[in-house]
Amino acid sequence: MKLIDIYIQEVTRRLPEKSRDDIALELRSTIEDMLPEGYTEQDVKDALTELGDPAALAREYRDWPQHLIGPRYFESYMTLLKLALSFGAAIALIAYLAQQAAGFTGEEPFLRLLPAIIIGAAGSVIEVAMHVFFWTTLSFAFIERVVPIKDGQLCHQWSPDNLKDLPDRAKERKISKFEIYGGIFWTAVWATGYFYADHLVVIYENKGNGLEFITPVFNQDVLQLFWPVILLIIAMEIALSLLKLYTAKWTMKLAAFNTLLQVTATIVLIIMLNHASFFDSGFIGYMDNVFDYGWESWLINGSIFLFFLGAAYNIYDGFRKAKH
């Protein structure tokens, strides 16, 4: 039954959510009707071979045509397009925010510029997305028309034995696309904020004539000391997102890599927060005028505690889903 379950999952995961359950029941009934009483594993393989490649069967259940990118390359095209769009959007966002941060002088309040920055960032992301979509589609359409089909097959001969190498995509372990692409977006946001913290993470006050820049929160020179390990963490986060996209579900190896990332990030944060000059001197003076003595210790210890709590839950949740 495991081959049948995985085969059905491989078909239905390529279909719209609303129709998956009905098609799964229909497909299971079809497979069972094809099997004799007291069937063997070989009987199952013969039935699945007759049904064919799950990707091809899923296309038969869909209601929309796929003429520009045909059956041979459609799955590869969609996977590459989603990946290219997510990374292209992240890179475009980082580049735009970096450009704005580099040109920020503080003469005009940041919050007043925020709407224009958001619109500009959205425009940059959309522009890059259009280029990625156009060139990716054009490339696959070209390949579709110049690479001949051999013996009526798709890209390779499919066999039920291929199912043994595929993961059992249980719903409890499944990783949503929102989690994957949301993680990439969050990496882009915090990385930009880190490398341009003296322009983006700042204190403003209303002086009557509008908001006035007071001081950056962090000492940018100290932040730059940690750039090699920060780049390592960024690379690990991107690698984790790629692994999630590839596996589509939590595994023990993925949970272990996530643990390594969380532990590394926590250690780096603790070291950074305990640096004597981590906060900008102007920010320290500003906070001394607002709060009583001891606020810095509360802020550092509270930040470490909250980050540690989040990392611990992230690690636990990863292993919980992997073991489910």
From TrEMBL:
Q: Which domain of life is it from?
A: Bacteria
The answer on whether this UniProt entry bears the keyword Membrane reads yes
Q: Which residues cross the membrane?
A: 80-98, 110-135, 178-197, 225-243, 255-278, 298-316
Pfam families in UniProt: HAAS (PF22564)
UniProt keyword Transmembrane helix present: yes
Keywords annotated in UniProt? Membrane, Transmembrane, Transmembrane helix
What species is this protein from? Pradoshia eiseniae
Q: What is this protein called?
A: DUF1129 domain-containing protein
